[in-house]
Every structure is written in structure tokens, then in C-alpha cells.
Amino acid sequence: MYKLIAIDMDGTLLNTDKVISNRNKQAILDAKAKGVTVVLASGRPLEGMLDSLHQLEMDSNEDYVLCYNSAIIRNIGTGEVISERLISGADAKRIYQLAKERNCNCQAFSKEHGLITPKNSYYTQHEANINGLTITEMDFDTLEDSHPIIKTMLIDPVEVLQPIADTLPEILKQDYSVVRSAPFFLEFCNPLSNKGTGVQTLAQHLGIKQSEVMCIGDAGNDHDMLKYAGLAVAMQNADDETKSLADHITDSNNESGVAIAIEKFVL
């Protein structure tokens, strides 16, 4: 019996129109009614998850959320922070230096200022639009070294990001959790901050065994939680690397693949 289900949002729970299907919603509500803890695990900030959480009636003291690729895990009802793994202003400046060297756009999430960027660009505006955020333009070099940063991102079309990802210095891979949440997002987080450690932390907090955890995802930032899961489910629309980590391939995000997996293994 699976007691915890962690579900990615974009490309997984949400269809290409960024909508939760009625079938997905009902399957999640039915799983919760059986006593299963269902959580959303996303690279999004909390602000960009609230509407989905509300639709899924995940607003009680028994509900949790993993946002910013699990950099922050919190109880939705009480607001209690279960885990917080951040980086710093010094880290943001380091990634910004790489962005300048490779002629790539950059943004970060600051605990104080929210979404920040040295220069607004198409994908920062995209991030702001889908999450309902305000953009603050600032030179990262002016940040205090100790400034609390949730994550820093390189943001540009895949033809710009892919060569950077392919040639990323090994020291950066060691110092940060580096994940691809979308073809146009390369994210740098605390080395202990990924969806795998996030789901593990929550499972341990709830006294749930690894074998009782089911995770559903479609992209690079889901790999760690798929590796951790007792049952790893990949979407039909996932890339081949993601599918290779799965115990089961469900239907696509446009065909209510999340619901189909929950109906098969939980309901």
C-alpha cells in the first residue's frame, strides 16, 4: 500500500494548457480520502502552486508542499517549514559570473526580494507570468554574500543552454544540485536540495517507509525522486532518460496519466 504520492506539476499533473483535468483531480481526492498523503513537488515557487493546491483541496494541517525543487518543504495549513535548504548571495554571484562568461541570461529567487534578475528577458517574464510574480531587476554583484537565495537559474533557449550544460565545470556539479526543470531552465540549488531528498525528508517526517512512496514525474528535476521512490512512474511525454528510471510508464499529461497511475496502483 502506497501511503505517500509525490507528483510533479508541469508536464505531469498539468496538461499543456496548464490545467488539472477532472480525472486527475478526482483520483487525487479519492486517494486522499483513503488516507494517502498526496503532495505536489515542483520547481515552482509556492505562489505558482497555490491555485493548484486550492483546486486539489490541499489546504489543511495534514497537507504539505515541496516547492523550489524541495528547497522549501512546508505544512500548508500551519505554515510550518519542515525543511529549508538554501544557497547564498555569494553563490548567486558565482552563477551570474558563469552566465556573463557564456552570454546567457540569469535569474534567482531571493527570500527578501522574490524573483530577481540582472536584466529582464523572455524566460524570466515567462516565469513571472505563470507564477504570478513581480520581477525585481538588480545587479547580482550588489548582493551581500550572506543574502539568502533559494535557487539561481540560467535561462535561455535550449540551443544556448545545452552547450553550457554539456560543458559545466565538475566543481559546480559538486557544489550544487544542478537540474533541468525545462529545456530553457538550468537550475542551481543547495547540494542537498532536490526532489529526492525532499520526498525522503517528508516521508521520514511522516513515518512512511521508502517502499510506501510513489513518485510521478516527467523531467530532469524529477530524476532524484524517481530514484528514491518505492514506485517510480514516468509520463508517456517524458524524455527517454526519465523513462529509463521508471518502474511504470503511464499515459501523457494530456491524457490524465497521473490519474491512470493512481487508479492502477492506489485505488
UniProtKB/TrEMBL annotation:
| Domain of life assignment | Bacteria
PROSITE patterns tied to this protein: COF_1
Q: Which GO terms describe its molecular function?
A: magnesium ion binding; phosphatase activity
Task: List the protein's name.
Answer: Putative phosphatase
Q: According to its record, what are the GO cellular component terms?
A: cytosol
Extract the signal peptide range.
Answer: none
InterPro entries membership:
Cof, HAD-like_sf, HAD-SF_hydro_IIB, HAD_sf
Q: Which Pfam families match?
A: Hydrolase_3
